[in-house]
Amino acid sequence: MSEVYITGAYNSKFGAFTKRDKETKQIIDKGPTIYDLIIEAGKGALEDSGLSPKDIDAIYVAAFSSGPFVKQEHLGPIALYIHPDLRFVPTMRFEAACASSSAAVHAAVHAIESGRYKNILVIGAEKMTERTTPETTEILAYASYFETEGSKGMTFPALFAEYAKGYKAHYKISDDVLRKMFATVSALCYRNAMDNPLAQMGKGSVAEKLGITTAEAILALDDKSNPVIADPLRLHDCSLISDGSAAIVLSNKKVAKSAKKAVQIAGIGNATEIMEEKKRPQMYMLEAGKIAAKRAYEEAKIKPKDIDLAEVHDCFAINHILTTEALGLSEDGKAGYDYMEGRFTRDDKVAVNISGGLKAKGHPVGATGASMHALIFKQLVDEPIGATLTKKKPEVGVTFNVGGSAVSNFITVLKRVK
What we know:
Peroxisomal Thiolase, Chain A, domain 1; 10-stranded mixed beta sheet
């Protein structure tokens, strides 16, 4: 079992921060920059930990594609602007598509376990909305196997639509039932986001204005309000284009013992799938995700029944279902039915995406993994951001962050410190 702990965390507001003229679509206000987002999250996590900048041995910064998005690579050194005392601290940049900051978290665990470092600050950030939607779609496609996928017009909705088609065919699910499954998980996330003050689709958002917090309301939308993006995926089956940042401080056991709060990273699991979808033997389950979960559970000495809450990578509704099954929270082929029966809410034994998830909290891709860790940390130290479990205090949380089309699979088990 790992003896690394989270001792502080911060999550920025997620949203579309770039403002454009409604008619010309020209940018009139860029809002916070990538620099601002990195500094905000890093400073917030450091303050939350109670540690001094001089206590930080290294800083790991994660972003997927800051060059194409905002014309700034080499992001590690930006973290030194958090505080003058961080000058000369080692920094590194991590990239693993939408799992970039989970890759940074896992690397930090390894570094602390080695004994080289006592405290590492991990920051994830992305500023996506300075690019137009077509530009963003192309940039995200760089995380596909571009030669045979992205360059041939395979967008990420299209890549995950292949999983939806495979799942539907393998489990013999009708079009109507599949649509209801997708609408159910999206509605759950919209409801949860209403209680998350940091969520992009929270109070006052389009989701509230349209009243789409039930599956029935989403299914009632016409094709103009909920168009097909990549059959069978529709607009409300897809996550958001977002800006934001999140950060956590990881510490060794000695530091954690004297910290004002701490959550144990009890186990981690990572498994990588073949990048080209056409070369995978199946497209109806996350086989690599299952292997990553097995590795994390064995290290943490838990089983799926021990989990109280999970943050899963619902970049698309089909992946919400697939990640739920890969974690063992539902039997294969049954997660969609479980959701339709009302499971995985804040009132259930295990709550999934109580934050609103990528679907409704937002998905600034480089920040997503750090955000998952930060929000579960806050739940486990009784400082929840947003909704809470109604029947008990959570003891065990799990994050499942995916990079690419279910290629890079990172799972972390977090435990409350008694």
